[in-house]
Structure formats: structure tokens, C-alpha cells
Design goal:
The protein is of the alpha/beta class. The protein has helices spanning about 15-25, 25-35, 50-55, 55-70, 85-95, 110-120, 135-155, 175-180, 200-210, 215-230, 235-250, 265-280, 300-305, 345-360, 375-395, 405-420, and strands at about 5-10, 75-80, 100-105, 125-130, 160-165, 185, 255-260, 285-290, 310-320, 365-375. About 45% of the residues are buried. The structure holds 5-phosphoarabinonic acid.
């Protein structure tokens, strides 16, 4: 594995022996996850990324993405939650920006939709609406607005600019695609949104952004092979799941996922969603949050350093190396001459070490995932590692990682406010 899990920074509370003991005490539950016994067939599609490797769908996606890249100026990804966060995390880090990728369907802000309509005006545009269950208002209504814009622009050829990734069945996107001749890609019936990034859901937008999706899949396949071959004690997915819950038992009920590349904030958001929606049930679970340093050292960093001791940090040691970017000397006496000719990478690694050290010293337990250079393979590996670890962690606290029944409450309230009929049929 590229990833090295390190818990040296939790030594004041926890060491590897404690984690091994924690694993032994919970070995049956952990093995049930590793053996694919947790969740139904409708949940476990993500567990076997190898199947995507030889799927004809990958070629279909790559061909479609090439066509879009040759013609589009803008590609609008319409989706929310698990339908967009995985793709966004890769695109914002590795996308080549040949086509501008715009995100819609994740807000009901009129200002946002107005801005998107403005951005696509007079520019060659494709939209990809992604929804496992096409009843969520945010993407549904954004799709309507954008579809109208394309119909106005392209007339009877608008359908050639619309790709839908969804499910089969009444009211679902497959039916709409058939009726209106949109290009259709399947939302795998055996995956929930936040576990779907390595399917058509994530792969088309990622491929349109020019990222090597085979590398991404390969990273996940490698992770699957290795994580399923480790002993439970040596398995980093198990170690991390157990360690974070042992810390929670000691009162660390918040986990802050820390990145040091601004573009990784979107990976951060994927991680937060994965753990938040999977574990936040039955009044249990660690509260997952994320920050990007240096910026957030000047915000939440104060709280971490001197606030109540209930936060653990998970540092993602991942970067884009640019050794050629060095601090330029200057004759201006600006007080920074001690940095002349130092590579920026040295500065970023100094702030990493400094934050880690300062936080550990004051008693913040800090995990580290060392992964090195950011690449498609790295994303594939981390996606798989964290999905597996999240399922183990969920089982350890006695919750089902799949589904998000709590999300329905706000939806029902909103339907009431907006007057949707009780049969669920839009008027
Ligand atoms: O992870 C999940 O399953 C959720 O976040 C869903 O992706 C989200 O609720 C959107 O669902 P849908 O794509 O069915 O509208």
C-alpha cells in the first residue's frame, strides 16, 4: 500500500499494543466486515472494485468523456451528497481544467442557480445529472432549470448534451432517459451514494476532467487486495477504526481531518460525508469535521490548541511536489530573507511538522496517514481504505453503515412546507 498509518501522535492515550488488544476484543465484528457479511447485496458493490477493471462500461465512459472533452466548454455535474462529493474531490485536485466543471443541484440558492445559468450562457455545455433515487429536490429542480436552458439553446438536439446517471424503475432517471433520449449510465443498484465514487457516478465526471480513471480503479484494487490479505492486527483499516473509537471512549468525540493542500478540502468533505452519514445514528458516533492548514490554523487552530480536549486530529500527509518553486530573493528588507531559495515544499512540510508537534505536545491525539504524492492511484486507495474503515468503525459502535434514514426528516418537513402531496406525487 502507498498509505502508511501512524499513531505515534496518540502515545499519551493509546499505543499500538492497546490497538491490538482492542482488535482482539472485537475480532468477530471486524472479521464480519472484512468477509463482506455486513450489509446486504444492495450495499456491497463497492467492496469489489476489481469488477470495474474489465467492465465494458469503463471503455464506454472513456469514449463518452473524450467526446465531451472535444466539444464542451462547460460540464455541469448535477448531484448532491454521495452523488457528487467523490467526483468533486478528485476533479478539484487532479482535473486538467480543459473543460470547466461546474457543480449544481446541491443547493436551493437562487443566486447559485442564476450564477450557473450565467456561466453556461453561450458556451458549449453538457450536463450530467446523477441521482440514485430521483426524488431529491435539490438536484431534481436544478436539472429542470438547466434542461430548459439547454432546450432553449440547442432545441431538439438538447438531449445530446444530457447524460443521466441513475436507477431503473418508475420515476427514475432510466425511464426519463428512455422517454427523452438522454444518454444513460447506470447508478449501480448495489451501491449507496457515498460508496459509489468508483462507479459510473464518479467515473464519468472524473474522466471528463481528464483524470486517469484506470489509475483510480487500480489504486482501489491494490488496496482491496492488500487490505483483505493483512492479518486483522496489522490491517491499517482495522487499526484506524479501532483506535479512533478507543479515543472516543476517552472523551475525544470530535475528529478533525486535516489536509495541507487547498484542493484536498474537497476530499476532506468526502471523508466527512462518508463518516457522518454512515455512523451518525442511534445517538452514537464521533463527530467528523475537516480543516485545511495553513489557512485554518488561523481559525480553528486556536480552538485545537487551547479549547477543550475533545478533538482528535487525523493528518493526511499528501502533497503535490514542486521542487522548482523556490522563494525568490529580494533586495527589499521584508524580514523574510532567511527563507531565500528554500523550496515552497519545505515550507509546507515545516507547517505540517509544526502543527503536528504543537498539537501533540498540548495533548491532542493525532493520527497520520502518510501517502506522499497525490495521484489517481492514491485517491483510489484512500477511497477504498476509508470506506472499509468506516464500515468497521460503524460496526464497532453498533450502527448500520448503509442508508441515511435521518436525512428523510428534513425532506418530509420541506415537502410539507412546499405542499407536495402525501402520495409523493409532484403537482
Ligand atoms: O450517500 C448517500 O447515499 C446520500 O448522500 C445520497 O447520495 C444523497 O442523499 C443523494 O441521493 P440521490 O442521489 O438519490 O438524490
Amino acid at each position: 500500500m502507498i498509505t502508511q498509518f501512524d499513531l505515534n501522535g496518540t502515545a499519551a492515550y493509546l499505543n499500538m499494543e492497546d490497538v491490538h488488544a482492542g482488535i482482539s476484543n472485537r475480532v468477530a465484528s471486524i472479521k464480519s466486515v472484512l468477509q463482506g457479511e455486513v450489509g446486504s447485496a444492495a450495499d456491497l458493490g463497492w467492496f469489489f472494485p476489481g469488477r470495474w477493471d474489465h467492465s465494458p462500461l469503463i471503455e464506454e465512459i472513456q469514449t463518452l468523456a473524450e467526446r465531451i472533452r472535444g466539444d464542451a466548454e462547460v460540464f455541469v455535474l448535477v448531484g448532491i451528497g454521495g452523488s457528487n462529493r467523490g467526483a468533486q474531490s478528485v476533479i478539484e485536485s487532479l482535473g486538467d481544467k480543459k473543460v470547466e466543471i461546474v457543480y449544481a443541484g446541491d443547493t436551493l440558492s437562487s443566486h447559485s442557480i442564476q450564477g450557473i445559468l450565467e456561466r453556461i450562457k453561450d458556451r458549449s455545455t453538457y450536463i450530467n445529472v446523477i441521482a440514485k433515487d430521483f426524488n431529491t429536490l435539490e438536484p431534481g429542480i436544478a436539472f429542470r432549470m438547466l434542461r430548459r436552458a439547454l432546450e432553449t439553446r440547442y432545441g431538439s438536439e438538447a438531449n445530446e448534451h444530457i447524460i443521466v446517471t441513475g436507477s431503473e424503475g418508475e420515476g427514475q432517471l432510466a425511464t426519463l432517459a428512455q422517454e427523452y433520449r438522454y444518454r444513460y449510465l447506470p447508478f449501480p443498484p448495489d451501491m449507496g451514494g457515498r460508496f459509489s465514487v468508483l462507479s459510473a457516478v464518479g467515473l464519468l465526471p472524473i474522466s471528463v476532467a481528464g483524470v486517469d480513471i484506470r489509475g483510480l480503479i487500480q489504486g482501489a484494487i491494490n488496496a482491496e487486495r492488500e487490505l483483505k490479505s493483512f492479518s486483522v492486527e496489522e490491517n491499517p483499516a482495522c487499526q484506524y477504526a479501532v483506535a479512533r473509537n478507543l479515543l472516543a471512549e476517552k472523551g475525544f468525540l470530535i475528529e478533525d481531518f486535516i489536509t495541507f493542500e487547498p484542493s484536498l478540502s474537497f476530499f476532506n468533505r468526502w471523508w466527512v460525508q462518508l463518516f457522518g452519514e454512515s455512523e451518525g445514528k442511534n445517538g452514537k458516533a464521533i463527530f467528523p469535521t475537516g480543516n485545511n492548514y495553513s489557512e485554518d490554523l488561523h481559525a480553528i487552530g486556536q480552538y485545537i490548541q487551547e479549547g477543550p480536549r475533545m478533538v482528535m486530529e487525523t493528518f493526511l500527509d499528501a502533497h503535490f511536489p514542486h521542487p522548482e518553486i523556490v522563494v525568490q530573493p529580494t533586495l527589499v528588507q521584508d524580514g523574510f530573507n532567511y527563507l531565500n531559495y528554500k523550496p515552497f515544499d519545505t515550507l509546507n512540510s515545516a507547517v505540517y511538522d509544526a502543527a503536528y508537534k504543537a498539537h501533540c505536545q498540548i495533548g491532542v491525539p493525532c493520527f497520520q496517514f502518510h501517502v506522499g504524492e497525490i495521484s489517481p492511484e492514491m485517491f483510489g486507495e484512500l477511497f477504498y481504505l476509508f470506506m472499509l474503515s468506516c464500515c468497521i468503525s460503524s460496526v464497532l459502535i453498533g450502527v448500520n453503515p448503509y442508508g441515511q434514514p435521518g436525512v428523510e426528516s428534513y425532506k418530509q418537513e420541506m415537502y410539507g412546507i412546499l405542499g407536495k402531496s402525501s402520495q409523493g406525487i409532484s403537482q
